[in-house]
Amino acid sequence: MAKESAKKKTKGPEYIRIKYNAHRPYDWSTGKYLGKVYAEAKENKKLVGNRCPQCKDIWLPPTPVCPKCKIDMGWDWVELPQTGTLYQYTYLVYPLWDPHYGEKWANPYPSAVILLDNGVFYRHWLEETDKEKLKTGMRLQAVWKEDYDERGQGVQDILYFRTIEE
Amino acid sequence: MSERVGIISVAQTKYHPNRADVSEEELSYEAIKQVLEETGISLSDIDSAVTCSQDFWDGRTISSMNIQHVVGAHLGHEDNISEDGINAVYAAMAQILSGRQDIVLVEAHTKESQTDKSMVENAAFDAISMRQLGLDFTSAAALQAKRYMYKYGITAEQCAMVAVRNRANAKNNPLAQEPMDITVDDVLGSKILVSPIRLLDTKPISDGACAMIMTTESRAKKLTKNPVWILGASNCYETHYLGDRDLADCDALTKAAKKAYSMAGITNPLRQIDVAEISTEYSYQEPLWFEGLGFCDRGKGGKLVESRVIKMGGNLPVNPSGGVLPGNPNGVAGMARVVEAVLQLRGEAGDRQIKGAKVALAHGYTGICGQHQAVMILGNI
User: Fold this and answer.
1) Where in chain A is the domain with CATH 2.40.50?
2) What is the ipTM of this complex?
3) Which 3 state secondary structure label does DSSP give B212?
4) A71 lies within 8 A of chain B by CB
5) Reported CATH class of domain A81-166
6) Is B44 within 8 Å of chain A by CB?
7) Which residue of A51, A98, B109, B140 has the fewest C-beta atoms within 10 A of its own C-beta?
8) What are A137-166's pLDDT values in tens digits?
9) Any idea where the domains of chain B sit in the sequence?
10) End-to-end CA distance of chain B, in Å?
């Protein structure tokens, strides 16, 4: 008996893994607020946000209710400048999951918050990926996909923000 | 309950097969806007928001994040329930009874149209013991329907009568998705999805949202002329693994109902309750839930379905709104039952109004074969 149980112990339990690699389909709607932002991007290569009637803060992504004043935003849209400064950045080196393709982004890249020239924060890619050349406060400008038919991808209608000299 | 909790405003969107025109946030706001306008309460007056949404339906973790602005939760208190909205109502009630929150906004939304129903429901099953066995809520429900019909001799005709009556009642509900004039033969002639469940034995894909404002008894009396009180409320859970229970009986519902009835002083539900709104996604569930709710003895649900008692004009009309079968989304369905009960008790149910209703029952459930059951008794006196 003792021998038997000792034998079992060394063998140990058998672990089996159940793996799923299924595609999970979703078909999300932008609705009318984000839909307006994406339509302006596709049709006119414009960045827009919506403005609170009370505090006048501009929101992008837009919102039906001002988070601060907690009132209905109405339908007041403002065009945003496409230039700004690098407000804050960090540098990602581990491979992050790419939700579109289910693969990992191989290259290291900077993750950036851009302060547009009217004071609205925007989150996007940077063209410059050499971390030695990144500097807080550097000037940036949006670069769009030029081909109309390639736009209509929402936030990805902008390719990235390019470093500019002024 | 030592102190009562009042519901002072309720709203629903129209239920629709595909609201591709709105985001989840905008859909929710359609309902929320109505309760704010009715009460004159602004989002900055809300002490706490209790929301109900399910991550797999919304396709994101922490599914309440995308609606935080429209529930006024920015730098405020918010809790999210992932079962049915009726449990969000329960959680809001508990918050108010705790004395820590005064005015609570309750919200539930689901857009079933934006993903695959079977995929979401399959994910409700245990990943490594059950998910691979070809199960979703409908195929599991069919097992329950078969067992229930076999054990108690419930007939397909009796189940079909449920499908007919609920869709006919929905004709008086302007927010219903699929009000229909159909016959028992139409139901029995509709295509089989998974035997014995046919297309008309179940509900269509649905998008929609509900909202509600709840508060303390004293605030409720100041804020509205016709508050509705929660007189009793209870939830009960039972085993997940289908082999661990007799699917012909619904012990969780029996327990939930007993507790809610004892809180509300209900000893004879058929006599003391004026109107009931019951979550029935599949037609066989109505007679089964009747048994769990103590409207009749076990195995007698089929007979009750046939009787006049539960029809409009009967002793206890069930689902004047049409209930879930004409189309309500998962997660919203049970809260919509509470909303309908409130409308009845406020005399605001339009063509589906039960005259002089004073006590109403709302029922919701979540999960596989009615695994998690919730019963709420509401009153207007």
Assistant:
1) 81-166
2) 0.91
3) strand
4) yes
5) mainly beta
6) yes
7) A98
8) 999 999 999 999 999 999 999 999 999 998
9) 5-116+205-223
10) 15
Whether residues A25 and B69 touch (CB distance < 8 A) is answered with no
| Residue at B219: amino acid letter | R
B290 CB contacts (<8 Å, ≥6 apart)? B296, B301, B304, B305, B310, B318
CA B2-B5-B6 angle, to 5 degrees, is 145
Listed residue (B229, B249, B267, B207) closest to B362, CA to CA: B229
pLDDT tens digits for range B285-340: 999 999 999 999 999 999 999 999 999 999 999 999 999 999 999 999 999 999 99
User: Could A65 and B44 be called an inter-chain contact, meaning their C-beta atoms sit closer than 8 Å?
Assistant: no
Cα-based torsion angle of the residue sequence B260, B265, B268, B273 in order, rounded to the nearest 10 degrees: -70
Buried/exposed code over B324-344 (b: 16+ C-beta within 10 A; e: otherwise): bbbbbbbbbbbbbbbbbbbbb
Query: Omega before B196 cis (within 30°)?
Result: yes
Looking at domain B5-116+205-223, which of 3.40.50.10260, 3.40.47.10, 3.40.630.30, 3.40.50.10770 is its CATH number? 3.40.47.10
C-beta atoms of B26 and A71 within 8 A? no
| Distance, CA of A29 to CA of B343 (rounded, Å) | 31
Question: Is the bond preceding A61 in cis, omega lying within 30 degrees of 0?
Answer: yes
Residue with tokens 């945003």: A80
Number of Cβ pairs < 8 A linking chain A and chain B: 69
Question: According to DSSP H, which parts of chain B are helical?
Answer: 24-39, 55-58, 85-97, 117-122, 137-152, 156-169, 184-189, 217-223, 251-264, 269-272, 285-292, 301-306, 333-345
